[in-house]
């Protein structure tokens, strides 16, 4: 069944024009590159998977179409923004004939995958929410994809062994870990593409399975997917510094959590870094650099008024908490014409000077060596030994590999060197 068979004739031209405009935009920002994925975007009627939304919104490349909310009004399900869907499909490098597992359903993305894998491939989509599964099935049925996509109810923590192994696993819900099942059910040479939140910063990662549970992959763009539910739901450890400022850490145990409010209230020591940002400059690489290289890393979030300067981004700012001292990074505006912001490290407690120095050194090193680089690659395996730059999650361990700009050399050293 095609769009033209079910949409009044007067709308078809309008829909096609909106879709072509969206495709142009996606191509302009490199979220859509291949002929295969472009053809899929042309073929699948996105509006039929989001009938309650205005067409202009459905075909806006950046709009997230939120379809379900929890009791606090937070979205638990959506048809994701097209830019992130096509970007992830491009990163997944899906080919005709492949078997693909999609984690998190909605229908539209699975239909795109079905177009790419073609009649000899297979798509399984799993969602923890039976209402989402029912709705996805109805939309897939109405658009003619029901035979090519199987939608099942389940907690993706276990993958979906019945149809394994998969050539590709595409996760469309925010993960904070890599459950063993996802790698076990992936062929050697297969790819796992997912939005993964590490130490508070969510990015799209594209991993290749090198066999035996070893994954190696690149870090991509910032993403903001709805959180995982079920066994993989995030369970961050937080410590309050004030009524509105909270430290989030994966230190286990958290050193002297009771001391944090007292230390935070102490007089601050501040040092500007000399590293400035202009309007629309991206500092996501710095967040990951600090998250993977600073000892005692944490994030601080809360009221900008209480923090005294603008925080880095709306949600959280990189921090360090040792149990006696705290340091964190702020980004106050330092000039208005042109507008410029400068990273500022601020510390409290007896080791404030050392922590501030360390943080300033790290920011300067990022500026010199990694500011315009691609960000880290990650190597992951559950048996990686303890080492600097190794992040432990419940199920695995991830080693951040930072290529030094221009040298093509991997920077394994832990020493930040200012
Ligand atoms: C962003 S939506 C998926 C979007 C969809 N792929 C599309 O076509 O746009 C994320 C989905 O993940 C589901 N989800 C959350 N936790 C899950 C889990 N543990 N296992 C399977 N699905 C989960 C939610 O119910 C939600 O429907």
Automatic annotation (TrEMBL):
<protein>
    <recommendedName>
        <fullName>Protein-L-isoaspartate O-methyltransferase</fullName>
        <ecNumber>2.1.1.77</ecNumber>
    </recommendedName>
</protein>
<dbReference type="InterPro" id="IPR029063">
    <property type="entry name" value="SAM-dependent_MTases_sf"/>
</dbReference>
<dbReference type="Pfam" id="PF01135">
    <property type="entry name" value="PCMT"/>
</dbReference>
<dbReference type="GO" id="GO:0004719">
    <property type="term" value="F:protein-L-isoaspartate (D-aspartate) O-methyltransferase activity"/>
</dbReference>
<dbReference type="GO" id="GO:0005737">
    <property type="term" value="C:cytoplasm"/>
</dbReference>
<dbReference type="InterPro" id="IPR027573">
    <property type="entry name" value="Methyltran_FxLD"/>
</dbReference>
<dbReference type="InterPro" id="IPR000682">
    <property type="entry name" value="PCMT"/>
</dbReference>
<comment type="similarity">
    <text>Belongs to the methyltransferase superfamily. L-isoaspartyl/D-aspartyl protein methyltransferase family.</text>
</comment>
<keyword id="KW-0808">Transferase</keyword>
<keyword id="KW-0489">Methyltransferase</keyword>
<keyword id="KW-0949">S-adenosyl-L-methionine</keyword>
<dbReference type="GO" id="GO:0032259">
    <property type="term" value="P:methylation"/>
</dbReference>
<keyword id="KW-0963">Cytoplasm</keyword>
């Amino acid at each position: 069944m095609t769009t033209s068979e079910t949409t009044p004739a007067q709308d078809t031209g309008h829909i096609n024009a909106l879709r072509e405009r969206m495709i142009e935009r996606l191509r302009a920002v490199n979220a859509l590159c291949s002929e295969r994925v472009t053809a899929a975007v042309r073929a699948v009627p996105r509006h039929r998977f989001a009938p309650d939304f205005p067409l202009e919104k459905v075909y806006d490349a950046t709009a997230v179409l939120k379809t379900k909310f929890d009791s606090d009004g937070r979205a638990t399900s959506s048809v994701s923004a097209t830019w992130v869907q096509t970007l992830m499909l491009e990163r997944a490098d899906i080919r005709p004939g492949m078997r693909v597992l999609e984690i998190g359903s909605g229908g539209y993305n699975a239909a795109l995958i079905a177009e790419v894998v073609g009649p000899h491939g297979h798509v399984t989509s799993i969602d923890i929410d039976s209402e989402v599964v029912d709705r996805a099935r109805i939309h897939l049925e109405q658009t003619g994809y029901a035979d090519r996509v199987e939608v099942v109810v389940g907690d993706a923590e276990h993958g979906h062994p019945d149809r394994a192994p998969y050539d590709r696993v595409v996760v469309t819900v925010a993960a904070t870990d890599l459950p063993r099942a996802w790698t076990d059910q992936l062929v050697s040479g297969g790819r796992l593409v997912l939005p993964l939140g590490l130490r508070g910063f969510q990015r799209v990662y594209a991993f290749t399975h090198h066999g035996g549970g070893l994954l190696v992959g690149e870090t991509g763009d910032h993403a903001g997917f709805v959180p995982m539910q079920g066994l993989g739901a995030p369970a961050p450890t937080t410590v309050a510094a004030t009524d509105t400022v909270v430290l989030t850490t994966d230190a286990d145990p958290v050193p002297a959590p009771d001391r944090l409010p007292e230390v935070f209230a102490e007089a601050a020591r501040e040092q500007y870094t000399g590293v400035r940002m202009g309007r629309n400059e991206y500092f996501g690489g710095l967040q990951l650099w600090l998250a993977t290289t600073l000892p005692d890393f944490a994030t601080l979030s809360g009221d900008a008024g209480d923090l005294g300067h603008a925080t880095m981004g709306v949600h959280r700012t990189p921090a360090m908490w040792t149990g006696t001292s705290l340091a964190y990074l702020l980004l106050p505006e330092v000039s208005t014409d042109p507008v410029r912001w400068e990273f500022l490290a601020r510390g409290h407690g007896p080791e404030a000077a050392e922590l501030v120095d360390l943080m300033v050194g790290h920011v300067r090193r990022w500026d010199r060596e990694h500011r315009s680089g691609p960000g880290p690659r990650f190597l992951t395996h559950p048996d990686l030994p303890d080492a600097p730059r190794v992040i432990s999650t419940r199920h695995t361990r991830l080693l951040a590999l930072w290529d030094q700009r221009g040298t093509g050399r991997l920077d394994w050293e832990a020493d930040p060197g200012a």
